[in-house]
Amino acid sequence: MNRLFIYFPCLLALVFSSCEDDDGIGLSVQPDEDFLSTYSARVYCSTGTEKCDSVLAKSDYLYLGQYADDMFGITRAEFMTQIDGRLGNLQIPDTTVSNSNSVSGISTGILNAIDDHYGNISSIRNGRDVKVDSVVFYIQYSNSYVGDSTALQSIKLYELNKTLPSMNASFSNMKVEDYCDKSVLLGKTTYRICGDKTIRIKLDDEYAQKLMDVYVNKTISTQEEFCDLYKGFYISHSFNEGAVITCTSVGLQVYYSFDGDIYTKYDGRDTVVTGRSITVNGRHINPLVSSFLLTANKGVNQVNLFSHPDLDEKLENLKGQPYSYIFTPAGLYTNVTIPIEDVKDSIVKAVGAGNVSNVMFNSAKLKFPVEKINWKTYLSKTPNAYLMMIKRDKIVDFFYNNNGPDALESFVAVYDTASASYSFDIAFAAQQYLKGNEQVFDDLVLLPVTGMSAGSNVCYKQTLTTSALRLHASDEKNAKKRPSLDFVYTRRQ
């Protein structure tokens, strides 16, 4: 993965030499007690803003829309998705259907309008009377969005011509052209964030009937067979800056009816039910019209696509500021350099090289003060609840495998409103460093995560919603606001 490093001026400071430091912080020694000597010290860490070329596309949600921020520029969210074509027990009936409110073996109720009003239905001839009315691609979204909800936006729908890769191989910078011929448009629509939280795109009649025939003729039996015919869809944002929405459900709604050869008897005469609501002798007859859903569930491959066309230009304007930044879903992280070698040198100086193995870290708190976001933006003014520090080469595996923080290569901190900061406990990792694991603090980055309950544990997911965080950097004039590591250790006599 290529990376662009943008280091804002960062000074590395080490405070060991004297208890007369301006902040009153330095190396201190507690009186011997039970043959133990306790020491404490502080070092300052360096940080920088780093832009990755892509982020892992795995997420519980899909995102759609376009949003413009005055500091980070345009964020465009699109996606590609497969559809689950498996309908369980659902099938078009090929035998005579008896007089009943339910149809045996049809879980979603293809003929849910059949009731006593109809009397005996004599025949539904092997599905040949099934007619597709329409197929609608739908997108349902939550109340969670970033941007202007009143802005009119436009999207287009295309069909994929190549199977999507598995989720562990999907990244946000995938080339749409490798999976989709955008010369063939299936449908388009405009929308504003509305009350029913649903966007609908009607597909053309030819495509709709082709899809319906798959089920009427029973030409598929597995998801693999379905994906061979329907490899998925690409939803493109067409124009206008508005809002990025969080999509909770996408899929196809298939509407169909039954024409001809469906008879009911009323007053000695036959009435043909054509699939539309009718009234017979003053009695309302429910229509023989129904629908079924083909959804993009968690069992199919989905890819979030994010682009930020003017981010590089915006980052140029941020150079020289005493801050580091985190911006999602742009893959804009803060990298962290901990002067752990200086920490070890100070320990050696304090206890002697021969006594390092007798040193035990009582605590090691890595603190990152947060600068209030005060620019004009739709972005949340409240910092993310959780912040993760992780080795860069472990990011993909961590989220793909739903790992938990191990306090060695991955750490999680909770935002503290009182101190406006995040604090990481790195005592275990520091101890491992003293034992010879010299790479434990190499190549660390900060990124926001979302905490989700998983039984008695908390599972952390990468945050792909549009959000920003500004951290004080190590060249901040106020030393209390700099990223710092406070540690306490004990030497056994």
Task: Please characterize this protein's 3D structure.
The structure is a single chain. The chain is mainly beta and 493 residues long. It has two domains: 3-57 and 309-492, no CATH class; 77-306, no CATH class. It is 11% helix and 42% strand. It contains six helices and 29 strands. The strands form six sheets. Strands 6, 7, 8, 9, 10, 11, 12, 13, 18 and 19 form a ten-stranded antiparallel sheet that branches. Strands 1, 5, 21, 23, 24, 26 and 27 form a seven-stranded antiparallel sheet that branches. Strands 2, 3, 4, 22, 25 and 29 form a six-stranded antiparallel sheet that branches. A hairpin with a 6-residue loop joins strand 3 (28-29) and strand 4 (36-44). The chain is elongated and about 85 Å long.
Overall SS class: mainly beta
Strand content range: 35-45%
Mean pLDDT rating: 76
Number of strands: 29
Give the fraction of residues assigned to helices: 10-25%
| Alpha carbon gap, first and last residue | 48 Å
The low-confidence runs, each spanning 5 or more residues with pLDDT under 50, are 1-33, 88-128, 260-278
Compute the number of helices: 6
Largest sheet: 10 strands, antiparallel
